[in-house]
Specification:
Structural class of chain B: mainly alpha
Strand order of the largest sheet of chain A: 2-1-3-4
Number of helices of chain A: 12
Structural class of chain A: alpha/beta
Number of domains of chain B: 1
Oligomer: heterodimer
Order of helices and strands of chain B: HHHHEEEHHHHEHHH
Shape of chain B: globular
Radius of gyration of chain B: 19 Å
CATH architecture of the largest domain in chain A: 3-Layer(aba) Sandwich
Helix content of chain A: 25-40%
CATH class of the largest domain in chain A: Alpha Beta
Low-confidence stretches of chain A: 1-26, 283-289
Number of strands of chain A: 12
Largest interface: A-B, 44 and 48 residues
Shape of chain A: globular
Largest sheet of chain B: 2 strands, antiparallel
């Protein structure tokens, strides 16, 4: 029943002229098969995603974005004249299957590094294995703290997106400032995702929270939970939930005639996906088609509706030239942005990269990289946390408008500050040019 | 008080959905004495057929009729082609075959219709009725579900109690040899039983899907609850299936609504209820006398 989708990028090498644009500073040495998964002409990366099952909507599009980016990158010569091969497999969001496909990737396909493995429960099942095997585990697609807050335990793992606790803090501060009289209800996924978000948000508005309701993924009846939020008198609901539960919570609220101000954390708020799910009910039944209209959310990446954002322009071009069927979506933008960061990491690891060298390079220079994400990464020897900054946005139709600029923070009791940096613009062809890190 | 009412109504409507699925299980059990694990994915298959018709512009009711008809055909084919060869052997064989079928059909749905989440429309509204100032979580769609399940139950009771076909089906299921001696075309009755059960299964699939989301495995969690409801009710009685569904729906809604971290306890509660009922009444609440059971 498992549909194993394995896609590898075209293996033709399109290096022209022999010049080494990819790395910026090659020094003219020869390419060597310097480590597992690296040959003179290719470098192999692996990942696991839910391509089927309850978590597949949206998330299954991420690898198509990653792959499109690498395909276009390979056309321009790859990294140090090596093509990037990207192998991804379906784990159906089932940790047992994540272990199985990760074993295949590491032992069978012999990948150089893991990148973008998706999901907290799923990736938790393989994080020990990857670290024990010494496989770099870069840019996990999950905002859990565990990939980044303890590099001593997991020296090979790195987060990428804003962690849920920092996100909760930024949301909490915003509510404290802008909605000081709101009675806040929390709608939480009953795992690390909801717990981290709750911990962050409670730092700022503990006294405003009137109810915290948890749902178990897989149990699609959230009637009692939404009814409890209503009964507690919450007029402002913050959801740390996945997209399908955004749709379910909206439908249930409709049944109950419950109309609080909604605030969905970044993960659950894609207006295209959720709106698409809810739209069908608009055929004469739900009069306001855009149920999510007016809901608040957070952002750390440009979204497809920002048509004048130069990154989105470039990603549109990449999707048209190297992508597959369908439109560019926010999930594909996410995948492309991760692939961009991965390219930076591979360039920084130098002409003949090793697994250890890759991790060292990310620790040493990853904090300086610029890219599509709004705020810098926190990578250092002491922290493997990803980006830390978020905007607050209001959903309008299928897009959103910014209501608060980028603010940055960190886990624990770190202050929240305004981000004073400039938004980065993409380099030519949206291919980074990082120097090799020499150590 | 409002909260109690809301949780109760949510439980009742959810219970009716379990009952819908349990009815299909009861029907196939009464007419063939097989527990059909593939029921869920067969229902999902016909729901996806209906969905693709609706997406192509057909009305809900046309899609409903086509889904029920294709359910009948699917049930009959499954019986003739896949179940027939293992019929008459140890009972377990047929049950294991239905388990395999469950997985195979689900995979086929994913291949044909894709594995993404899709919303399934409903012909009625999804907003709760307003009573005075408050809104109760009872929607026109849930009334439609309740009505459809009750009508189906009445039809099934009538079929088995008042028609010759129903009698012949029960006889074939109960003792093939005796039925055959008495002139019942047992093969035809078994096929009919599977076909009708699949029709009811298809209906339950559509009722469950209406106003919410479908993906190839959307019936999975309901299969468990549907089985529990059917077994609480005795697996033999259409009325029992309804009562079992309502008991389960209410109990799970109260657990979810009142126990701390209740949502996580729902599945385990269903199994605790099941064990409790079976300990007190091993045949289920509405079982007929043990002497009659094969």
């Amino acid at each position: 029943m498992t549909v194993v989708a394995a896609a590898t990028v075209a293996s033709t090498l399109a290096a022209c002229g022999g010049s080494d644009e990819g790395g910026g500073s090659s020094g003219g040495g020869e390419n060597e098969a310097s480590d597992t998964g690296v040959t003179e002409t290719s470098i192999k990366l692996g990942a696991h995603y839910p391509l089927t099952g309850v978590a597949a909507p949206g998330y299954s599009e991420i690898p198509t974005g990653v792959k499109a980016y690498f395909d276009c990158l390979n056309k321009e010569g790859g990294v140090y004249d090596r093509t990037v091969e990207f192998i991804y497999k379906d784990d159906a969001y089932n940790p047992a299957q994540t272990s199985q496909v990760t074993n295949e990737l590491v032992l069978n396909d012999e990948i150089f590094a893991m990148m973008s493995g998706l999901g907290t429960p799923t990736h938790s099942a393989v994080v020990d294995f990857l670290n024990d095997e010494g496989v770099p585990d870069l840019f996990v697609s999950s905002g859990s703290l565990m990939w980044g807050d303890d590099p001593e335990t997991y020296p090979m793992s790195f987060g990428w997106q804003t962690d849920y606790e920092s996100e909760g803090k930024i949301i909490g501060e915003y509510i404290a400032n802008e909605f000081p009289d709101a009675k806040v209800g929390l709608f939480l996924q009953d795992d690390d995702f909801g717990e981290d978000g709750e911990a962050g948000i409670r730092q700022y508005i503990d006294d405003q929270i009137v109810a915290a309701e948890r749902y178990t993924p897989g149990n699609t009846n959230v009637g009692p939970q939404i009814a409890a939020l209503k009964a507690a008198g919450a007029d402002f609901v913050v959801g740390f939930n996945v997209p399908s539960y955004t749709a379910l919570s909206q439908l249930t609220a409709l049944q109950l005639g419950y109309q609080p101000q909604w605030f969905y954390s970044n993960v659950g708020s894609d207006p295209n996906l959720v709106g698409g799910l809810l739209n069908r009910f608009s055929e004469g039944k739900v009069t306001d088609a855009a149920l999510l209209d007016g809901a608040l959310t957070t952002g750390y990446l440009p979204t497809v509706d920002m048509t004048d954002n130069p990154w989105i322009t470039e990603f549109q071009r990449i999707w048209q030239e190297c992508g597959g069927e369908g439109e560019l979506t926010n999930y594909r933008v996410y995948g492309m942005s991760q692939a961009y960061t991965m390219t930076q990491a591979l360039q920084a690891a130098g002409q003949n990269p090793t697994r250890e060298g890759l991790v060292e390079a990310v620790e040493a220079v990853g904090g300086e990289w610029e890219g599509p994400v709004f705020a810098p990464f926190r990578y250092s020897e002491d922290s493997h946390m990803g980006t830390s900054g978020m905007t607050i946005e209001r959903i309008v139709g299928n897009g959103s408008e910014e209501v608060q600029g980028v603010r940055v923070t960190d886990i624990g009791d770190a202050e929240i500050e305004e981000f004073d940096g400039e938004a980065a613009t993409p380099p030519a062809n949206a291919i980074p040019e990082e120097e090799a890190y020499e150590g | 008080m409002d909260y109690f009412v809301n949780v109760t109504i949510t439980g009742l409507t959810q219970g009716m959905i379990y009952a819908a699925f349990a009815l299909a299980l009861v029907l196939i059990w009464r007419s063939t004495r097989i527990v059909n694990f593939a029921q869920g994915s067969m229902a999902a298959a016909t729901t996806f057929i209906a969905l693709s018709l609706i997406q192509a512009g057909a009305s809900y009711w046309v899609a409903l009729v086509v889904a029920l008809a294709s359910g009948f055909v699917l049930g009959a084919i499954v019986e003739r082609v896949i179940i027939r060869p293992v019929e008459g052997g140890p009972e377990l064989n047929a049950v294991i075959v239905t388990l395999g079928l469950f997985v195979a059909i689900q995979a086929a749905i994913a291949i044909i219709f894709g594995s993404s989440f899709q919303s399934f429309p409903t012909p009625f509204g999804v907003r709760g009725f307003e009573i005075g100032e408050t809104t109760i979580p009872l929607t026109p769609t849930s009334l439609y579900v309740i009505g459809a399940v009750l009508v189906t139950m009445a039809l099934l009771v009538a079929l088995f109690r008042f028609t010759r076909v129903g009698l012949a089906m029960r006889a074939s299921a109960f003792s093939q040899e005796v039925a055959r001696l008495l002139g019942v075309k047992v093969g035809g009755m078994l096929t009919l039983g599977w076909g009708l059960a699949a029709v009811v299964g298809s209906l339950s699939g559509l009722l469950i899907a209406g106003g919410t989301f479908v993906y190839p495995a959307y019936m999975d969690s309901l299969i468990v609850f549907g089985f529990v409801a059917a077994i609480i009710g005795g697996l033999d009685s259409p009325v029992g299936a309804i009562v079992g569904g309502l008991i389960l729906g209410l109990a799970l809604s109260y657990v979810s609504g009142y126990a701390p971290r209740g949502s996580a306890l729902v599945t385990i509660s269903a199994l605790v209820i099941l064990i409790g009922v079976l300990l007190v009444r091993p045949g289920g609440l509405f079982s007929s006398t043990t002497a009659r059971r094969a």
